[in-house]
Amino acid sequence: MTQLDLTFVRAQFPAFSSPVTAGQSFFENAGGSYPCRQVVDRLTRFYTDRKVQPYAPYAAAQLGGAEMDEARDRLAAMMGVARDEVSFGPSTSANTYVLAQAVRGWMGGKGAVVVTNQDHEANSGVWRRLAESGVEVREWRIDPETGHLDPADLARLLEDGQVKVVAFPHCSNVVAEINPVAEICAMAKAAGAFTVVDGVSYAPHGFPDIPALGADVYLFSAYKTYGPHQGIMVIRRGFGDLLPAQGHWFNAGTLYKRFTPAGPDHAQIAACAGMADYVDALYARHVGGQADAAARNRAVHDLMRVQEIEAVAPLLDYLAARNDLRLIGPRGAKDRAPTVAVALQGAAETVAERLARHGINCWGGDFYAVRPLEAMGVNLDKGVLRMSLVHYTGPDDVARLIRALEEEL
């Protein structure tokens, strides 16, 4: 496997040459990654040349509409789905909320849904509130010591055939263990249930191959995948066509408009094509040759993962050797996303403030993961210190972080 050329990679991100952010070691990627140059360029161009109502019969409108179409086409091709199965919305939390309202109407107060207590609240609270309509809510619970979700526990929840939806994360934003999505989706399908996968904490480490995962819905946030502040929801036709439309009635015949009740952000949708540009740039630099969009995406995903596993391993080794903190989630770098949360003896946010003096950018708190932290017995008043890497994080950044932790903990 070719290693990522970090000099090339970091040259694709304006933040690394900005007078504000250059020289800082950025470990707040789980809260939002730096946008790549390709996205910034497209967003600037749209606001400069195309910021009109798209699709009208004049040049600027036609160019704007074409760029919006390009974004949907290229992201769909990367993820192996049909173009109309890709919906854009203001955030993943908003997209999940709208989806849940559609499911509420479809279920009609009957049946059950499964949620986990490993999730970010966006893919948990909206489904739990279906209980107000008579839907049974079943909780798939994590191991309180490790944060692990055991598929055997899910099997028991599915036994009676009453479950219609299983909502779970690809990985948690604090536990970070990579869940076996394909296995879970297959289990749910065999029991007659649809799956809603929160990919927000995984997609920054490689865009999903949706057919391989088998998810009926997969959600993630573009601002965490090097893009603009948009939520992206892939909803497969077999599920989407069953659900009542949540947008304007006259748009109900178009799948990607069924779950978009408000007008989309034209400029940010268009700029999302820059994420595909970036994936293609990495592919051309490191692999080359002819391949379709999905194959290029898979290759870049693997490159990112190799880089991240190598980068995060020294940090995990260092933290595991300390006896004054609790490392949340798996010990092994291959088993997790490189989002590392630790429970400290004192307030995590105070430590994050001290680390900032060393040029370390991270944060402390609950990160809307209140349920998993409570389940694992973490003091929410203290929270966790979260240090999150992506593929552009270099070994020098990690070494700098370890030195700062050694001084401040």
Automatic annotation (TrEMBL):
It holds the Pfam family Aminotran_5. Keywords: Aminotransferase, Pyridoxal phosphate, Transferase. Residues 26-401 form the Aminotransferase class V domain. Gene3D superfamilies: Aspartate Aminotransferase, domain 1, Type I PLP-dependent aspartate aminotransferase-like (Major domain). One of its GO terms (molecular function) is transaminase activity. This is Aminotransferase class V-fold PLP-dependent enzyme. It comes from Neotabrizicola shimadae.
